[in-house]
Write a structure and sequence with these properties.
Two copies of one chain form a homodimer. Chain A is mainly alpha-helical. Chain A is built from seven helices and three strands; from the N terminus they run αβααββαααα. The N and C termini of chain A lie far apart (48 Å). Chain A binds a DNA duplex through helix 2 and helix 3.
Chain lengths: 179, 179
Amino acid sequence: MAIEYAILGLLSWRPFSGYELRKFFSESVALYWSGNSNQVYPTLVRLHKEGLVENEVRQRGNYPPSKVYSLTMAGEEALTGWVTAAPAVSQIRSTFLTQLAWADRLTSEELDSLLNHYQHELQLKLLMQRELIRRKPAEPARTSREVLLWKMIADHDCALYEAEVDWLGRLRQALVKEE
Amino acid sequence: MAIEYAILGLLSWRPFSGYELRKFFSESVALYWSGNSNQVYPTLVRLHKEGLVENEVRQRGNYPPSKVYSLTMAGEEALTGWVTAAPAVSQIRSTFLTQLAWADRLTSEELDSLLNHYQHELQLKLLMQRELIRRKPAEPARTSREVLLWKMIADHDCALYEAEVDWLGRLRQALVKEE
DNA sequence: GTAGTCATGTAAGACGTTACATGATTCT
DNA sequence: AGAATCATGTAACGTCTTACATGACTAC
């Protein structure tokens, strides 16, 4: 499970409560998880059982108490171990490709409209991603190298979306030639 | 669920048994599902209940009988409807990026080794993908346009892997400059 | 006789999602 | 008065995976 390491990573910066972790995930460009509670809270409980994190309950008057988690030594080691581990190439799973696989059922006009639609969606995603990056350079990185890494991580998705736009361009050209 | 449309799509070519569908999925480059039985058989039962497919039980002596499925008119329509529907851009989820997010814990040498490792993995994937495409142009497409579509679908993953190699190159260059 | 293929299906579990439950406080 | 935020957690469900159960036939 990768989210457990994302959590350990955030705790390596500073202590977080479950609520704060969820908020961070939901706003982060790089850490893609939605930040839903059903994933964060049980993971924290498990990490606690495994001795990788410890928590301090903070009472705030009549507020619900919050559990502020921080890394243990074992947690530090687990994080470093994972970061060093052999990286795996992630699988690409595009529903659109499955749609395209049977797009021969469509007329040339319908197919063109489908591709056009997808191109617009891609360009919209690209714009949104770039806007998110522009607005939110405020990840609390501590060294210039970490700033660079987070910048490149955010750039990664842009690079792939651009590659898809290019691919789509080649596909459309090939279709025009084919006619 | 996209696999249900992938199944409808295959059945639009010709009748398939569940076993044949699983085999097709497990060998296909474009249709990325593993072809595990727990996904294929229940889906066929559901599609049958919904009236999108019908089956004919084929008895073969003492062999286990096989259920050969084919599309109904409603199935044809459902497939066409889905192919025409608004395409969605798929989310990119790379565990490697999460690993990179806390790679500032590593020394320059360790980080370089991590990036090197990932680059090798990427290039291996690219080679494997290209080899799969070279070996297996035998998808039973019926029109030259469909041949083109399936070629571009197989090419899609290559294009993205190449983009990732480029991105990695930019990252490494930026890191060298940074030092 | 051992492994592989043909053929159906179930069990259990990893990972992710939305929606719900609860309850106080703070902002408009 | 109503909505948003702070803060925990559970329920239900969707998708996908590996592994198991069963049983006959086929090729080495």
